[in-house]
């Protein structure tokens, strides 16, 4: 879920210098490179279940893509990969907050997993109740998050839940994107998924993060961090890119990825990284690297904290993760 935690540039370089470009792309053919196709055709090919709102937006996307300089295979493929991840292949208009099991809800929004820090005794009133959960997670039931997102009124948590191609979230972001796009998203939040407007917030967010430059470097980690605020779903975003890039590049060759650190890789903030690092540091028994922060992971964190001379609370906070990252078996 994109949280619009991007590094805003001083200058707004989304100018008319791109007005003369058309974002044409290549598609493989039996005769080799050179067969031209539209972005909409690529989208339809990789996402056959895409919502009509989104498909209609891509049918009329050429001028907008050119305006934002998304005119090369790398830029197009990275933009589409992020959008496809955030929307489940174009099938999600609004973030789903419909949870049916306590275990899953607590794994996402429970203590140690989210600032909402939902406790087990709260769960019954939040299961199968999207509005109540949204208010508890993004709204007035979670004051720090509500302030961060600009959700100041009862109901804002649900009203401004993740919406659209990059899952714009929070009243302040609806207002900001609306100001940039010239559309009153704040007072008319459903317009953010209307075909004539759906691309605009995503493109402005892309522009704010200076993501054309990151795409040119094929740096999917930077793109993901600036859109997501972390690295959630990085593997899925990469899988979408790997599917899309050959279509827009006109061949099956993959570009060289941006370099990463050695060892098991830098801490990306994920539970999977935590579990992998704990295993490398000698977790007994070894953890299943499944991305679910259950009791086994908590116990392994406690054991590591004790061995590292840290406060033992079972929560993998910044100090614990830093100690793990510096462990010889992890950093090697």
Could you give the topology of this structure?
Blueprint: E1 25-27, E2 35-37, H1 39-46, H2 52-59, H3 62-67, H4 73-86, H5 102-109, H6 130-137, H7 143-149, H8 156-159, H9 171-181, H10 199-208, H11 211-216, H12 220-228, H13 234-249, H14 271-280, H15 295-307, H16 318-325, H17 328-331
Antiparallel strand pairs: 1-2
Short précis:
The protein is mainly α and 332 residues long. It has helices at 39-46, 52-59, 62-67, 73-86, 102-109, 130-137, 143-149, 156-159, 171-181, 199-208, 211-216, 220-228, 234-249, 271-280, 295-307, 318-325, 328-331, and strands spanning 25-27, 35-37.
What does this entry look like structurally?
Residues 1-15 have a biased composition (Basic and acidic residues). Residues 269-324 form the Peptidoglycan binding-like domain. This is Peptidoglycan binding-like domain-containing protein. Residues 1-32 are annotated as: Disordered. The radius of gyration is 21 Å and the shape is globular. The protein contains 17 helices and 2 strands. It has helices spanning 39-46, 52-59, 62-67, 73-86, 102-109, 130-137, 143-149, 156-159, 171-181, 199-208, 211-216, 220-228, 234-249, 271-280, 295-307, 318-325, 328-331, and strands at residues 25-27, 35-37. It is 45% helix and 2% strand. It folds into 3 domains: 16-93 and 174-249, Lysozyme (Orthogonal Bundle); 102-161, no CATH class; 271-331, Muramoyl-pentapeptide Carboxypeptidase, domain 1, CATH 1.10.101. Helix 1 (39-46) crosses helix 13 and helix 4 (73-86) runs antiparallel to helix 13 (234-249).
């Amino acid at each position: 879920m994109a949280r619009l935690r991007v590094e805003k540039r001083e200058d707004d370089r989304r100018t008319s210098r791109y007005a003369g470009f058309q974002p044409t792309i290549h598609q493989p053919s039996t005769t080799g490179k050179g067969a031209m196709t539209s972005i909409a055709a690529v989208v339809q090919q990789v996402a056959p279940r895409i919502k009509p709102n989104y498909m209609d937006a891509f049918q009329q996307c050429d001028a907008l893509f050119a305006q934002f300089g998304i005119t090369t295979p790398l830029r197009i493929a990275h933009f589409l990969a992020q959008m496809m991840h955030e929307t489940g292949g174009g099938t999600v208009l609004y973030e789903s907050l419909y949870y049916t099991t306590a275990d899953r809800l607590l794994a996402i929004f429970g203590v140690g997993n989210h600032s909402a820090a939902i406790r087990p005794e709260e769960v019954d009133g939040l299961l199968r109740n999207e509005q109540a959960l949204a208010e508890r997670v993004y709204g007035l039931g979670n004051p720090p998050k509500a302030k961060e997102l600009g959700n100041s009124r009862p109901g804002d948590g649900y009203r401004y839940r993740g919406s659209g191609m990059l899952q714009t979230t929070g009243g302040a972001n609806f207002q900001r994107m609306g100001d940039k796009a010239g559309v009153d998203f704040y007072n008319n939040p459903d317009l953010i998924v209307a075909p004539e407007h759906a691309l605009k917030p995503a493109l402005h967010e892309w522009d704010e993060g200076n993501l054309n430059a990151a795409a040119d470097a094929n740096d999917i980690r930077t793109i993901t961090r600036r859109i997501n605020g972390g690295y959630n779903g990085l593997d899925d975003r990469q899988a979408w890119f790997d599917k899309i890039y050959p279509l827009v590049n006109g061949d099956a060759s993959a570009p060289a990825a941006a370099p990463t650190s050695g060892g098991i890789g830098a801490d990306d903030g994920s539970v999977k990284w935590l579990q992998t690092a704990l295993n490398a540091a000698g977790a007994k028994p070894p953890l299943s690297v499944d991305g679910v922060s259950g009791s086994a992971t908590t116990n392994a964190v406690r054991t590591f904290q004790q061995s590292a001379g840290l406060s033992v609370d079972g929560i993998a906070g910044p100090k614990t993760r830093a100690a793990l990252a510096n462990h010889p078996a992890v950093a090697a």
